[in-house]
Amino acid sequence: MWTATKQYDRDAPTPKDHAMRLPSILFSVTCTAWMLVASAPTAVAVDILATAIPGSPFGVATVEIPLPVPVVGEPLPPLSVDEASGRVFYPIAEDTRVDTAVRPSDRPLPPQGRGRLLGRLGNLIREIASDEEPLQQTVARRVTFLFKGDGPLVITLADSRGSIGTYDIVPTPDPATHAAMLNQWWSVYTDAAKRQIESADYPTYVEDYLVAMLAGRLNLPLPDWYLAEDDSEAALTDTLKLIGGATDVAQRIYREAAAGIRDTTGGMDQTLPAPPAWLPPDVPPGTDDVPTEPIADRVPPECFYIRYGSFANYLWFRDLSEEYGGDLSRMITLSGIQQLGSLQLEKQLHLQTNELSRMLGPTVIKDQALVGRDLFLGDGATMGVLFEPINTFLLRTSINQDRTSLAASDDAVTLTDVDIAGQKATLLRSADNQIRSFMVEYDGYIFVTNSETLARRFVEVGKSGDSLAQTPSFRFARQLMPLTRNDTIFAYFSPAMLQGLVAPDNMIELRRRMHAESDIALVHVARLAAAAEGSPARSIAQLTDAGYLPAGFSKRADGSSVFEIGDDIMDTKRGARGYFLPIADASVDKVTGEEARWYERIADDYSTRFRQLDPIMAGIQRTQLEDGSGNERLTAHVEIAPWSPEKYGTIAQQLGPPTNVAMDFAPDDIVAVQAHVASELLGPPTHLFVGIKDSIPPQPDDFDGLIATYRALKSLPAYLGAWPQPGALDRLPLGLGRGVPVSPGMSRLIGGVYRYTGGGFSVLSFYPDLLQASLPHMGAIEVDDRAQVRAHIGDLSESLLKHWVNDQLYQRAAVGSQSGANFLNLLSRQLRVAPEQASPSAELILGGPLQCPLGGRYEHSPTHHQWVSTRWGNRTAADTMPDDYVAPIMQWFRGADAKLTQYDDRVVVDAVVDVARQ
Asked: Using one digit for the tens of pLDDT, what is the confidence trace for 331-344?
């Protein structure tokens, strides 16, 4: 159930006053109930006000509980309502809260004289500067819900502290008032839905569906926010969001589908729009003789390329991924939904690693690479694994045995011979695309891919020689990052691959995919809604006829739609969700007029503003530390080249030239950052630097507001400096930048900031002792490498910062944990999903398993009538960090150094990270 809090003026009529003034035609019943009040140790008898009016398809009822003793402080747990015969639907709880005292700003203006006006002004200033929110109290509780039938209702109210009571309510017909109450329920319901959507850490499929479905069935208006669109978004930004699978893009497509807003009138009568007018990358000459690895000669130039170099390197990467459930993003934080993309690809290709392959792999495989045209792992990527065997016969035999064994043991999987560009190949597949694996061999190389297009291009490249390795951009990349680096992993994203992501067929099919995903999720939610209301509707046709799906549902211009196979929902052209047909294999020859106009806007924006896409290359090397810790050191080198800073905005253009000068920091600085900048405000190119001592810093919430930010900064043991000394501070009017001298080279500025000047340095801090202790270590030194930005973070696991950082990461994860529990509460209270079916239902709707970002397990608490996480202990909210909680990144991060160097034609990032392995 969603909840809402209603704020009333202190002197305004109370909710009970409003209820008692309802027209006499309403049926109002006063009941006596035993209610648990947070401030009272025993139950207290209270009056219950109830109003119920039948209607079609739903009646509307409101139950209000004015509290005899207001509850001061935090809001009460949300009310839940149940009815023995299952006639209550879509409840919304609403509490009424008022301030406990009149604030100075609420009082009338006092008369002049005797300092009363100045006193009022002082109170106002104290009110504005106060860190405390006005204390509030709950004076009444209310729950409004829909119901079926016109017979008496027997409802039970409860909250997380236990049962409140059971009440009999007799509905009284009144069509005119029914409409008014329905509109009032709708206003509160949609406002509460909006709040839950804004706080959600998951795709809000259920909330969006309920708003659209109920609006359609009850002839109620969609709220203004439901289809609101930010017209200021540039096409370039829209494109990046779409490629990245941004939630807001997918959400709008889903909302339009849920509301039945889809253009199905236009035919597929338009030719594919032209791509942007790309310019070739500015690759310098002289790369013809640059050595490249043989396996790159088998990669199509329109593909990305991630090379492991050896089977041992691949095993290292796979083991690292396996330590975090196959998802390396879990090294940083846990998301609300498990990301299973890499595991899904492994399953789809049917390439498993077992103990035998671990032993034999190094003797069979010389080199190995992952290649593809996109990274849409969660939906169904266009990817494959390329092998350069040491022994082709053994590798071929091993892979074929695994494929034959699967086809023989699973009736849903077939293994057939296919022709790929004149080359004999095999296809292992299931009808839903969960298994889709082409295996093709050419000239001693073996390629296993889920894309027929990629398999064909592999053969064509082998025959023609027009490979990725022969492109000037790749040879330039290998000139910058030569083979002699011996990278554990080398990744290269070619201009052709990046341009392919923005190609018209790719973009339009990607958008159609989102429509398919929306339709699949909608059917799963609609089934739950129908079951919750006791409707027999289950098929797509039945759900549409009954109003649980919009009219014309799943009719798309490209002729695709969704269909049912038992409990599964699939797309007719793309297969099962998460295993969609690779975009490279989807034929997009014709488009609708709306699709053509949509893409032309994107192409025009790129042609005007971003005509070159710069290739990206990265290398990672690993070494075992020899300090006895068992830790590893990962050294990463990333380049974007060729590069043009003008395309990347003002930040890229405000860096000064690369420099061999670096700042020397004090040894107790746990965090140190420096940048060489060129700013009109500061004058000539200047080194800015920040040092933070190993200490317990202020909370982020302390930076909320101007005064609070000042206080927080004042408590932060840090310093900010510049070298050579900029003149900006000295140019401030009235000598504000020079301050009052307090010691040689030290002055005190307004606001309690101390400034040291000397040796070309200008350093600011709130702590003069800190400055004095750090100054002997401070210096501008020459180093061997050039850079504009340098950063250092020490080993947090051995620092005073450890608990603070861990707590901040816990607070962020706790929000996600609470959000996941709220989603399960939504299924239970709005859609009546049984606790044992909640997790499977959530996975069907969301497209992946729901997980607690705190690393716990969601469980339903019958005592508290809500879902909780096992990481919350005996509490009903994730409000306090357990003593044994360690954030994912804190488990392995042992320090890092990084630098960024921007040249005229390229940008380079180097980073060294120490990692503790599990």
From this structure: 877 888 888 778 88
